[in-house]
């Protein structure tokens, strides 16, 4: 995949990985539509990138917002070549997470991807090309201590990306799934259910920060764009995740026991 000259949409682009992705894509010659709930943040990033970027605000789990993104991209730059489903939320803590928190996590972390693919894939099939990039998490391959909705929804995001790749990979559509551990973003520092669930939030943050290095969004964006250029399905900004994932698959019971011991150590 040659990035230069391509048209991309990046969701959750007002800050963090999304903003870094937009910057890197534009630097590599792409034109980008940035989407975020925070209109001011998305606009600031887009304005810093010049004529190659525009901002659109809205809930990217909403069909009409996604349609609007695609329409804006086509009007400004041409048909969409790449869709980065990057927006994400934590969603809740443990069994006391409310149905509303579960619904929000599934809407943003999974169904937003499904709805975007539903709108884009038919056109990509006609053109014979298209690229869907899902930001999941190492939690989608392993688990997330302290947050059941995050863990479950990220597993689902990985599963949907796998299904897309298997179903359409021989028809010109490429899929990548990004599964980082710690990234220096607002989600890591304040996104894991603060307040009444402070203990769960602290556990979630400790688990991520203890498991490996916390990378900058720019570092992650560089790895993602390189992975997309190489058309790799699984993009791992933290390579050690692959070793952890292999351990999980080799002996599931031993891995679960190890995770329980890791959790106890963090709580101690």
Automatic annotation (TrEMBL):
One of its GO terms (molecular function) is oxidoreductase activity. Belongs to the short-chain dehydrogenases/reductases (SDR) family. This is SDR family oxidoreductase. Its EC number is 1.-.-.-. The keyword Oxidoreductase applies. The keyword Oxidoreductase applies. PANTHER family: 3-OXOACYL-(ACYL-CARRIER-PROTEIN) REDUCTASE (AFU_ORTHOLOGUE AFUA_6G11210) (PTHR43180), SHORT-CHAIN DEHYDROGENASE_REDUCTASE FAMILY PROTEIN (PTHR43180:SF66).
């Amino acid at each position: 995949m040659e990035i230069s000259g391509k048209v991309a949409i990046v969701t959750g682009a007002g800050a963090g990985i999304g903003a870094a992705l937009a910057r890197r894509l534009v630097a590599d010659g792409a034109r980008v539509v940035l989407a975020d709930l925070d209109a001011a943040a998305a606009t600031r990033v887009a304005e810093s990138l010049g004529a190659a970027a525009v901002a659109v605000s809205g809930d990217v789990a909403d069909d009409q917002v996604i349609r609007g993104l695609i329409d804006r991209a086509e009007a400004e730059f041409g048909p969409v070549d790449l869709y980065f489903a990057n927006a994400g939320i934590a969603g809740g803590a443990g069994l006391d997470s409310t149905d509303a928190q579960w619904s929000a996590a599934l809407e943003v972390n999974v169904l937003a991807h499904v709805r975007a693919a539903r709108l884009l894939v038919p056109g990509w099939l006609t053109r014979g090309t298209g690229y869907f990039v899902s930001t999941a998490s190492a939690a989608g391959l392993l688990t997330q201590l302290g947050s059941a909705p995050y863990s479950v929804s990220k597993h689902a995001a990985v599963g949907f990306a796998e299904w897309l790749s298997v179903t359409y990979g021989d028809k010109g559509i490429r899929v990548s799934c990004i599964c980082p551990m710690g990234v220096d973003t607002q989600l890591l520092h304040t996104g894991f259910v603060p307040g009444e669930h402070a203990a769960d939030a602290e556990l979630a943050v400790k688990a991520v920060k203890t498991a490996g290095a916390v990378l900058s969004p720019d570092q992650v964006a560089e790895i993602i764009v390189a992975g997309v250029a190489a058309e790799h399905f699984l993009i791992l900004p933290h390579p050690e995740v692959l070793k952890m994932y292999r351990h999980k698959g080799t002996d599931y019971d031993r891995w679960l026991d190890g995770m329980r011991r890791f959790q106890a150590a963090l709580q101690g």
